[in-house]
Every structure is written in structure tokens, then in C-alpha cells.
């Protein structure tokens, strides 16, 4: 049994990482043929991509996928700790699984992801959720086959969570959930320690993959017909800092843009590490999509300081306008937290005025959620939840009306759309523009998913556009 510990997770001493290749123990390959699995994923794209690896490892063991958890012999919850409601959702699901296990004694249940890195969660599982067969963390995803097999063979709960990052594993098998768009990890972990955030504790230190491994993966995707890659990291702009003297995110973006991949995206960008070189490269290469996610969190420099974000309102705006001025037609989206401890009505109004100035193309807005073990928990907070909810509502009204206005301005324009499928509405296709807008559209001629087509915009909604193929 290995239990997580935040003190250890917080430490950031210099260390080197072995880079090893994934191998599957031949003795357990296809051992579970005939059994069905269901993976439920919460949280960010990184978790979604981890689940793509989990599915592939399970299929190597012989399991086949089912979309209905009631039908499964093995259910894995890949969890997220970012806010309390993510937490609650996973525990709610564990409650349902408990009932299911009463009827189905052989059901295997596993929990992984960021919640597994939290000691309080693991303690709760040890005490009240004894029916959970195994728990593993974000640092030992690759050990899943071994852990499942041990749980079965020993018929005993397995808790295998490490607080410190171990080896960097290449060559994990993957079953991608989309045939045209692929996620590619470029950097793991986060060293920013924003005071509200749990990620540096659950995902460990910033560790970059070797550029050769990344380029090789993208090249393989090109060969397999993929049209879009999204480079993933909690803070992709820190890419290379831990590994190279003079090779960073700007260089990597440029090297990837030179490959034959029609669309390159990346997320998430922390404003702190956003270099001029990156902006220049995004503007220069037409296959780097002109769409940047640049979380601001707050428009008040006082709150940004309390959040430990390392930039001010002014320096954020400077960067924002530099990107807008250098990259033609770029869209910028953001994340905003309201109700951070100490946020006054004036601070909130500064966020509102920043939103009016930036007119973001998309914004994910949240009420501050206290995460155990993070420094923000110790800050004094005099604002009631009701007031925070009101702020969120006021903010959402403004951001939503801006989205709609911006979308309306696109009516009559022609956008390039990567076709992903047919919509629920009959005879409609859907896909995303270069600027990452969701577009539902009609077409006189049949088209193939994975094609990139020109679509004239005919109508605008808050969250999507309608159009017809020309
Ligand atoms: N690495 C990314 C953010 C990843 S988490 C970045 O720094 O830009 C995604 C978003 O969740 C954050 O941008 C933040 O807006 C929100 N978030 C993180 N911790 C939170 C908390 N404790 N309460 C509310 N929102 C939070
Ligand atoms: Fe969390 Fe900040 Fe790291 Fe983003 S940069 S993952 S908000 S600590
Ligand atoms: Fe959640 Fe972990 Fe991602 S906390 S947002 S799943 S890195």
C-alpha cells in the first residue's frame, strides 16, 4: 500500500527523471477476454487523454468497452479535484456503484486521477468505501494492468498512490476517442502554485517530454490521417524549461507547425510564460490555429496578487493586446474565478471592466472553491455564498451577451470548418472553425468527416453558429 502525502507532493527539489518505455506483462495480456469495462472521466483534457490510455491498457488485458456502466464487469472513475462539485460528482457515482456491487458481487471498481492524490479521499475510501477494489494515482497510470491483476489475484483492496513523480513513461498504448483530433501531452505537472489551486499537488512537478518523442507522435498521427492535434499541459508555455537550455514552447510550436498537420492547438497557456517568440510563431504559421486560451482569473491586481498569478491587470492587458495585434483574427478565451477570499465589490467590478475591454470569445466562469491544503484556505473570506452567486450571474450575463454579439458579427462570413460528424438535427453536420467556434451546417453534397470545408455563416447563437457549406 502506498498512500499520498501533500508535504511530499509540494516539494520541488531538483531531480532527473528516467524515461522508460511502457511494457505489458505477457502473462496478463488478454487474460480478461470476455469481461467488459466502463471508464467514467471527470475534469480536464489531460484526464480525458489519460482515459484514452486507460482504455487501451484495459483492451490489452482483453476487456471490451461498454457505454453502460450497469453492464460492466469493471468500472474505473478517473476523477478531478479542481472544485468541490467535481469531488461530489465522483462520490455520488461511488454511491451508485455501491448499490450495483450489492447485486453484482464480482464487479471490480477502481478510482484514479487527481482525487486519488488527495490523502483525505484515500482515507475516506479506506474507511467507508471498502468495496472499491483499487486506487492508483496520476503518477503511476502505467501500472494499471499490474494493479488490476493484483486486486483480482489477491482479492484484496489495492491502494497504490505516489506523491512524487516517478519515471516519465513513453509508448503508453492509446485508443483515441476522436478519429480526426488528437491530444498530445507535451508537459506534465505544474510549478506555479496559484494559491487556490490543487493541481501542483495532484500532478507534481513540471516535466517536459523530449521534443523528439513529441514530434514522432505527431508524425504518426499525420500518417494515421489525423487533422488536428492539441498540445496538452497544465501550463504548456513552460515547455522545455526543465529539460533544455535553449529550446522552449515557441521552438516546439514552430517545429510542429512544419509537420504536415493541418491544425495545431495548445492548452493551457499561463500568461506568465507567454513569450514574444510564441506570439510570432502563432502569427506566422497558418496551421497554428488563431485561438488562444489565456486564463485571467480576475481583473483586480490586488486579487491576482493574492492568487499568486505572477501578473497584474495591466501586464495581462498588455499581453492580450500584443496577441490581438500580432495574430490576425485571433480569438481569445479565458477562465475567471469570482468570490476569491478578499474580493470586494470594487475588485469584482474591475473583473467586469476587464471583460468589457477584452470581449473574450469564450469564458469559463467559476465560484472560488476551497481546496484543502492550498494556501487560499487560510485567507479571510467575508463574502457570502449568495453574494458570490450573484456576482457569477452578473458576470455570466455580460460574457454571454458579448459571445452573442461577436457571433452575430460573423453572419455572412465564410469560415473553414473541420467536419466532425452529423448533428442531432437531421441533415446537419457539425465541426469547429479555426477560431474554435462550434458550427452546425447544411451541405448540398455529401461530405466526409475529417474534411475541412468552407461554410457561410447564416445565423448566430450564444454558443454556436449555423451555416451552409459553399
Ligand atoms: N493551468 C490552467 C488552469 C487549469 S484549472 C491555468 O493556470 O490557466 C482550470 C480552471 O479552473 C482555472 O483556470 C481556474 O479558473 C479554475 N480553478 C482552479 N482552481 C479553482 C478553485 N479552487 N476554485 C474555483 N475555480 C478554480
Ligand atoms: Fe493551477 Fe495555477 Fe498551475 Fe493553472 S498555473 S494548474 S491555476 S497552479
Ligand atoms: Fe481536474 Fe486534475 Fe485536470 S484536478 S482539472 S483532472 S489536472
Which ions and ligands are bound to the chains? S-adenosyl-L-homocysteine, iron/sulfur cluster, FE3-S4 cluster
CATH architecture of the largest domain: 3-Layer(aba) Sandwich
Give me the number of helical elements: 13
CATH superfamily label of the largest domain:
Methylthiotransferase, N-terminal domain
Kindly state the mean pLDDT as a whole number? 96
Q: Hey, roughly how much beta strand do the residues contain?
A: 15-25%
> What is the CATH third-level topology name of the largest domain?
Rossmann fold
Radius of gyration: 23 Å
Roughly how many Å apart are the termini?
A: 60 Å
Overall shape: globular
Q: What structural class do helix, strand and pairing data support?
A: alpha/beta
Relevant terms:
binds S-adenosyl-L-homocysteine, 470 residues, 33% helix, Rossmann fold, Transcription Regulator spoIIAA, 4 domains, 13 helices, alpha/beta, 6-stranded parallel β-sheet, globular, binds FE3-S4 cluster, 21 strands, binds iron/sulfur cluster, 21% strand
Fold and architecture overview:
Helices cover 33% and strands 21% of the residues. By secondary structure, the chain is an alpha/beta fold. The strands form 6 sheets. It has a 6-stranded parallel sheet, with helices on both faces. A 5-stranded mixed β-barrel has the order 17-18-19-21-20. A 3-stranded parallel sheet has the order 9-12-13, sandwiched between helices. The mean pLDDT is 96. The chain binds S-adenosyl-L-homocysteine, iron/sulfur cluster and FE3-S4 cluster. Residues 190, 192-194, 197, 199-200, 234-235, 270 line the site of iron/sulfur cluster (SF4).
Amino acid at each position: 500500500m502506498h498512500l499520498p502525502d501533500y508535504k511530499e507532493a509540494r516539494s520541488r527539489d531538483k531531480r532527473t527523471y528516467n524515461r522508460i518505455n511502457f511494457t505489458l506483462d505477457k502473462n496478463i495480456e488478454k487474460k480478461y477476454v470476455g469481461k467488459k469495462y466502463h471508464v467514467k472521466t471527470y475534469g480536464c483534457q489531460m484526464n480525458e487523454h489519460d482515459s484514452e490510455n486507460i482504455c487501451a491498457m484495459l483492451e490489452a488485458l482483453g476487456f471490451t468497452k461498454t457505454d453502460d456502466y450497469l453492464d460492466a464487469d469493471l468500472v474505473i472513475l478517473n476523477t478531478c479535484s479542481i472544485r468541490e462539485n467535481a469531488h461530489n460528482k465522483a462520490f455520488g457515482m461511488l454511491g451508485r456503484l455501491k448499490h450495483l456491487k450489492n447485486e453484482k458481487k464480482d464487479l471490480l471498481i477502481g478510482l484514479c486521477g487527481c482525487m486519488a492524490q488527495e490523502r483525505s479521499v484515500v482515507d475516506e475510501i479506506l474507511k467507508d468505501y471498502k468495496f472499491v477494489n483499487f486506487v492508483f494515482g496520476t503518477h503511476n497510470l502505467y501500472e494499471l494492468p499490474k494493479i488490476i491483476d493484483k486486486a483480482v489475484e489477491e482479492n484484496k483492496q489495492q491502494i497504490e498512490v505516489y506523491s512524487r513523480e516517478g519515471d516519465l513513461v513513453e509508448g503508453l498504448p492509446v485508443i483515441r476517442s476522436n478519429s480526426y483530433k488528437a491530444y498530445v501531452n507535451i508537459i506534465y505537472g505544474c510549478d506555479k502554485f496559484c494559491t487556490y489551486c490543487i493541481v501542483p499537488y495532484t500532478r507534481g512537478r513540471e516535466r517536459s517530454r523530449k521534443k523528439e518523442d513529441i514530434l514522432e507522435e505527431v508524425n504518426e498521427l499525420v500518417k494515421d490521417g489525423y487533422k488536428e492535434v492539441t498540445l496538452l499541459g497544465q501550463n504548456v508555455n513552460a515547455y522545455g524549461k526543465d529539460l533544455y537550455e535553449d529550446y522552449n514552447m515557441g521552438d516546439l510550436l514552430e517545429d510542429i507547425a512544419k509537420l504536415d498537420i493541418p491544425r495545431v492547438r495548445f492548452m493551457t497557456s499561463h500568461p506568465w510564460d507567454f513569450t514574444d517568440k510564441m506570439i510570432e510563431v502563432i502569427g506566422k504559421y497558418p496551421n497554428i490555429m488563431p485561438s488562444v486560451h489565456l486564463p485571467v482569473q480576475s481583473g483586480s491586481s490586488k486579487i491576482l496578487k493574492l492568487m499568486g498569478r505572477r501578473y497584474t491587470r495591466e501586464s495581462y492587458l498588455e499581453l492580450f493586446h500584443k496577441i490581438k495585434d500580432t495574430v490576425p483574427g485571433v480569438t481569445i478565451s479565458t477562465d475567471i474565478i469570482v468570490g476569491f477570499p478578499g474580493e470586494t465589490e470594487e475588485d469584482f467590478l474591475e473583473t467586469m471592466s476587464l471583460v468589457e475591454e477584452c470581449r473574450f470569445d469564450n469564458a469559463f466562469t467559476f465560484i472560488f472553491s476551497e481546496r484543502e491544503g492550498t494556501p487560499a484556505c487560510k485567507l479571510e473570506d467575508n463574502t457570502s455564498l449568495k453574494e458570490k452567486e450573484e456576482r457569477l450571474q452578473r458576470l455570466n450575463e455580460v460574457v454571454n451577451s458579448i459571445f452573442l454579439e461577436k457571433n452575430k458579427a460573423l453572419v455572412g462570413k465564410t469560415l473553414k470548418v473541420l467536419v466532425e460528424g452529423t448533428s442531432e438535427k437531421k441533415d446537419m453536420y457539425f465541426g469547429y472553425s479555426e477560431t474554435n467556434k462550434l458550427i452546425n451546417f447544411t451541405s448540398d453534397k455529401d461530405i466526409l468527416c475529417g474534411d475541412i470545408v468552407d461554410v457561410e455563416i447564416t445565423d448566430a447563437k450564444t454558443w454556436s453558429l449555423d451555416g451552409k457549406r459553399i
